[in-house]
Amino acid sequence: MDLKALGVVFATVFVAELGDKTQLATVLFAADRDVSPWLVFLGASAALVLSAALGVLLGGALAKAVDPRHLSIAAGIGFIAIGAWTLWTA
C-alpha cells in the first residue's frame, strides 16, 4: 500500500471538505434535537463514501480514454478557474 498517496488523498479531501456546504448541512441536521447524531453521521458518511466511489469510478473510466496528464491539467485549470471566479464575485 502506498501510504504517501493515501495521506495526500486524505489530507486533500479533508481540507477541501472543511467548511463547505456539505459540512454546514451536516451541522444543521445534527443540531436538530429530534434526529439522532449517529443517524446524521451514518447518513452523511454514506453519502460521502458514495460520492467518492463515483469520483473514483469516473476517474478510472476517464483515465482509460484520456491521458491522465491531460486530466491533471484540466483539473488544475478547473481549480484555478473556480478560484478566480470566487475571488471575482467576492
How would you describe what is shown here?
The chain has 90 residues and is mainly α. The chain contains four helices and no strands. It has helices spanning 3-17, 21-31, 37-65, 68-89. The chain is extended, with a radius of gyration of 17 Å. It starts with a helix and ends with a helix. The model has no long low-confidence stretch (mean pLDDT 91).
Uncertain runs with pLDDT below 50, 5 residues or more? Answer: none
N-to-C span: 42 Å
Give Rg in angstroms.
17 Å
The share of residues in extended strands comes to under 5%
Order of helices and strands, N to C?
HHHH
Secondary structure elements and their pairing?
Elements: H1 3-17, H2 21-31, H3 37-65, H4 68-89
Helix pairs in contact: 2-3
Brief descriptors of the model:
single chain
Gist of the model:
The protein is extended, with a radius of gyration of 17 Å.
